[in-house]
Fold:
Amino acid sequence: MIFLVINCGGNQEKSSSSESTAVKPSENGITKLVVNSNDLMQFDTKELRVVGGSKVELTLHHTGKLAKEAMGHNLVILKSGVDLSSFAQRAIKAKDNEYIPEDDDVIAHTALIGGGQSTTVTFDAPARGTYDFLCSFPGHWGLMQGKFIVE
Ligand code: CU
Structure:
């Protein structure tokens, strides 16, 4: 049995809007992002925006009830030029690593979580540009994907 470190961060306000978001002001050089996911294989946003040069604190909530093994979600940000479809294919074979292939294609990723869980990852914003993000759980990327934009 593997226990993940689940970090709720004490900051549980739900993002009130699912519309595409304006860039969040950074506090002390940290851009905080919150993404919700659910049992219907959905993220609540298709677009994340951060301030170039900031640190990013990305929190993923799973508001559903299904277990990680059945409806696990993560949020993986790919380096530019990485093909979503081929990455997702490789991810399927990386079950032992929470569907993160051991290669060099990832800028940052969260832990894989199930219903009722939350997880946070902190990383440096990459160079200005637009990147793809997805959930790499098998079969999810078609619905669970979007753009990560560094302004
Ligand atoms: Cu998923």
In short: Confidence is low (pLDDT under 50) at residues 1-20. The chain has one domain: 30-150. The first helix runs from residue 68 to 71. The first strand starts at residue 30 and ends at 37.
